[in-house]
Structures are given as C-alpha cells and as structure tokens.
Amino acid sequence: MTKAAVKQKRKNSNFWERNRKSEGYLLKKTIMSFVVKICRFVLLFGMCFLILQPIFNKISVSFMEEQDLYNPMVIAIPEHFTTDNYRLAAELMNYQESIVNSFVIALTISILQITVCTLVGYGFARFEFPLKKFWFACVLMVVLIPPQTISTSLHLHFRFFDILGIFEAITGSTINLRGSVLPYYLMSAGCMGLKNGLYIYMIRQFFRNIPKELEEAAYVDGCGTLKTFLRIMLPDATPILTSCFLFAFVWQWTDGFYSKLFLGNIRLVSTSLSRIVDSLAAYLQRLQGTTVTPTVALTDCIMSTGILMIIVPVLILYLFAQKGFVESLSSSGIKM
Amino acid sequence: MKKQKNKLAGLQKRKAIAGYIFIAPFIIGFLVFMVKPFFQSLYMSFCNVEVSAGSFNPVWQGIDNYVRAFTIDPEFTRLLVEEISRMVVDSLAIMVFSFFVALILNQKFKGRALVRAIFFLPVILSSGVILGLETDNSLMAQIQVAIEDTTSGISITGAVEDILRTAGVGVRAFETVFEIIDNIYNIAISSGIQIIIFLSGLQTISSSMYEAADIEGCTKWESLWKITFPMISSMFLVNWIYTVVDFCMRSDNEVIDKITTVMTQQINYGFSSAMTWIYFVIVMAFVGISSLIISKGVYYYD
Question: Which listed residue, of A76, A264, A278, B58, carries a Cα 20 to 30 Å from A117's Cα?
Fold first, then answer.
C-alpha cells in the first residue's frame, strides 16, 4: 500500500467517523455541495452554449456552399467546403478599404473620447467648485437622454453649421458639414459621443476612490495641479482607462447610429454590413443582367459571413484584453 | 490668522478654477451639442420644417404633429405600445437573469474566468448594427422549423407549455412567461453590462458579514435575502436605469426605426421630432416613476 492510499484511507475513515459524530450532518452537507456543483455546471453550460451557439452556427454556415443550405441533412458540418462566401462578402463590403477606415476612425475617436472623458471625470472627482452638483446632473442627463431625441436637430445643426453666424456673414452661406468626419470629432471633443456620459461616470467613480493623502503629499512636494494629474493619478488609473478605451473602441467599431448620421460617406465596416443585403441584390443583378431577389438562404449565409468578418478583429482584441474588459471594471466598483 | 485664512481661500479658488478648466470640454460640448439641439428639436416638433437648398425655416403650427402621431399615423401608436410593453417585460427579465448569473459567477469554481469571458462576450457581439441584423435571421428560423419537423414536436418546453395551457390556470400570466423563455437568447445577450455591475456590487460586500451570519445559524437562502439583497440594492437602481435606457437606444427598436425613416427618407423633421419627443417623454416618465419606487427600497450601508 502506498503512502497516498494510506492517507486516503485514513481520510475516508475519518470522514465516516466525523459523519457519525456529527449525526449525519457532514454527509448531508457533502452531498448538497455536490448537487449544487452539478446544477451549477448544467446551468452554466447551458447558458454558455446559448451564447456561443449562434457564433458556431455562423462559422459553419459561412463555409457552406449554397446547396448545403437547402440540404436538411447538413446542420453543422458543411458537405461542400468552400471559402467563396468570404470572398463575396469581402467584395460586397469593400472589406479592405472599410476595415482600414473603421480602424482609423474607431481608434482616433476612442482615444479622443477617453482623453476628454478622463479630464472631465478627474475634474468632477477631485475638485470642489461651485455648481458642481448641477454639472454632474448634466452628465447624468447625457447618459439618460437617448441620442435619438436630438438626432433630428443635430442633423440640421451640421447640415447648416455655423458658429454664431460668423461664416454666414463672411461667405453668405452656412457650411454643410454633413458627410464629413469633422462633426463627429467635434462632438467627441465635447464629450457628446457614443455613451460618453457613461465613461465620465466610470472614470469619476474610479478617481474618487484614490485617497486624498496622495494628492496632498504631491502638493507638499511641489507638484502643481497638472503635474499631480499626469504623474500621480494617470498611472494609477491605467486599468479603468484601458477598459473604457476598449469599450469605446468596440462600440465605435460596431456603431450604426452615429456612423449613419455623421459618417455616411465613409465606408465603414458597420455601415457596409448593414447594407450588405442590398449590395448582394445589386451584385446579383449586375451578374445576371436582370432583376433578381437573392434567396433567403444565400442572403443569410452572406450576412453571417459578413457579421463574422467584422466580429473577428474585435474578438481577437477581446481575447487578448479580456482581463481588461471584465476584471478591472468589476473591481473598480461602479456605485451610485 | 486672518492672512492664513485668506491664503486658504486663494488655494480653494485656484482649485475651483482648475476644476472648471478640467470639466470645460464637457460644459462646452454640453451647451453646443446637447442643450441647443435639445431645445431646437423641441421647438421643431411644434413646427412644419421646410428644407430648401440653402436653409431651413420652421413654420409654427402648434400641436399638429402630435395630433398626427397619435390619430392619423397608422403605425405609430401600435409600435409605441408594443415597444413599451416589450421594454417593461424584457427589462424585468434582464434584471432577474443578470442578478442570478452574477450570483453564480461570484462563487468560486473551476473555469470561472472562462465562463465570465463568455458571458461578457455579448457586450461586444450584440452591439450596434449586429443586433439589428441578428433579429431577422430567417435562416436560423428555417433550420429551427426543419428540426422541429423532423423531431415531430418532441420538445420538453413545448410539452410543458401545452400541459399548462390545457390546465388553463392563469393563461395570460403563463403566456408572458413563455414569451420570456422563448426570448431567453435576447435576454442573455443584452445583460452583459448588467452582470458586470452586479458583480462589482457583490464583490464590495465583505465576506465577514456572511461568516457572521453563518455562525449565527443563517442558511444561505436567508443570507441572500438579509445580506446580499440590501447590500446591492443600489445596484438594482443603477442597473434598472441602465437597462431601460439601453433598451431605448438599441438599433432593433421599431419606434426609433420609424423615426429615422421619417427623418432621412421622407425628410419630415417636424413630425419625426414630435414622435421622438413623445417616445422620450414616455420613457423618461417611466424611468422616473420606477426609479422613485426602487429608490424607496434602496438601503445605504454607510
């Protein structure tokens, strides 16, 4: 008998002995925890499957030929393996061009947004000034008001853009900023981009938790306001800033609303994806010379491929920065 | 003594100025891109906006747009009622689901990091345009029908639903529950952020509280109601507001869809503003009233 087995046996006998001493309580508890474990596993497995299944389904569909889609025998593994769908979807979405555009825009916009939101969040967290409550209520307003409410007039605002009538006085007409990128950068610089109120809120929450002594020590040692912010506060805030940045990037990447409103003329993956069905119809029409409506199966197949193609870059980002997304956010503690 | 006080006031003043400088971008952005369009759109909703090549001029016409939205437009009232009832049911379901999942994910078990990563995946996958495309995925529906045909309706949930229906007890209530169950995918994919918020709340509860309760002979069930619930009740408020607001902004929202169509295709700014305002006011009223009720039950530890 090996040592481990002896140990095991002693443990076992101990278990029963202990069980007898506790009048069956120990056994009951062990069984209970085992049952809980199994229930938890089943539940979690089911829910994870629920979330992952559409992705797996899309992956398998995207490799199928059209005839496989009609074949009821084919469910998960394609019979005729093909990568043509990817080629077609890439062509329909102008993938190369739009992915570069999307990347540049999402990156610059999210850096700009997070920079500004950090400044504002820091201002709200560490300084006392008159009307602070009022301005913070405004931040909450920004979180609460759906951008759709003001989209109509924003539309006009940028269609006939002017600063205090200066341009009209000089050139005689207002500037049409619609279709250019500028309005969106302006809005981002003014913290009015996609979900910026939320970022301000999260960053403020983080900075509030930094002890005041740190700031005071810096002040005693001769740090000015700006220097304290740059040298002391920013390095501490890296986790929350990373997670906000990742959010900003991902949401900007897939955003349809602001992109449609302001960036209509620029090819982005999100907007070209939402148009992919129409482009498919147009493509088939060009190919065959007559008006054809693409079949449901083919449309969905191409659409799944398109969705996969725009998800994959974000998914890779997510895999690498998963900790940044989940852990830093949940440990920083969002509280009202 | 007096001099020192003055100096302190000077420091405070300097800090106040620095604070204003820090939040200046927000103030400017808020005034230019929020307040102005906000009131402009309110004004436009009472107007008939005529857009010509170089300018637009709103013509005041009173509450015509609102009357039109409610009485003349064939779809709007129906869509509004549908969306709002969907919002109430779904938001409740999301709250329950995310609280439940957060409770599970807060326990220690093997592979927790993986499960967390998977549950948080929808925040990415269901954002923006993807969600709108996902909802009308008819291929999936076809496959589902095909599978159901081949298995000739052997489905546990289907059978249970049938039994409960024939039993005929409180049919309406059951229908709502069935709807939620059929909708579970939508609920699961839209509760990523809520799970994170609940998790962050759960992690702030000190474990000594549970230990104390355990020693005093509290069961897990009791400590859930007596400790966990009060301690994270403020999270319920945050989550509820977030869920409802998030629901209004989703891209598969039919009311928003209708508004965008009227605005960009029919170029009827006045009417679309009016519809937006009706929707906005109803949602805000709903958020206000419900969060007032919830905040009555919120318990603050410190």
Answer: A264
Range of the domain at A247: 85-115+146-194+240-332
Give the closest residue to B127 by CA, choosing from A36, A257, A68, A162.
A257
Do A47 and B119 lie within an 8 Å CB cutoff? yes
pTM of the model: 0.79
> CA A84 → CA A65, A80, A296, B130, B218, distances in Å?
8, 11, 18, 22, 62
Interval A79-88: pLDDT, tens: 888 888 888 8
DSSP letters spanning A286-311: HHHSS--PPPHHHHHHHHHHHHHHHH
| Residue range B32-54, pLDDT digits in tens | 888 888 888 888 888 877 766 55
Closest residue, chain B, to A41 (C-alpha): B109
In whole angstroms, give the CA distance from residue A217 to residue A44: 48
CB pairs below 8 Å between A and B: how many? 264
CA of A212, closest CA in chain B: separation in Å? 14
Q: How many structural domains comprise chain A?
A: 1
In one-letter notation, the amino acid at residue A117 is: C
The CA distance from B168 to the nearest CA of chain A, in Å, is 29
In a domain, A29, yes or no: no
Q: Do A307 and B189 touch (CB under 8 A)?
A: no
**Would you say residue A324 lies in a domain?**
yes
**Contact by Cβ (8 Å): A248, A258:** no
CATH class of B45-297: mainly alpha
Domain ranges of chain B: 1-44, 45-297
Are the beta carbons of A187 and A147 closer than 8 angstroms? Answer: no
A335 pLDDT band, cuts 50/70/90, is very low
Q: Are B241 and A144 a contacting pair at CB < 8 A?
A: yes
Q: Which residues of A touch B185 (CB under 8 A)?
A: 50, 54
Of B19, B118, B189, the CB nearest to A127: B19
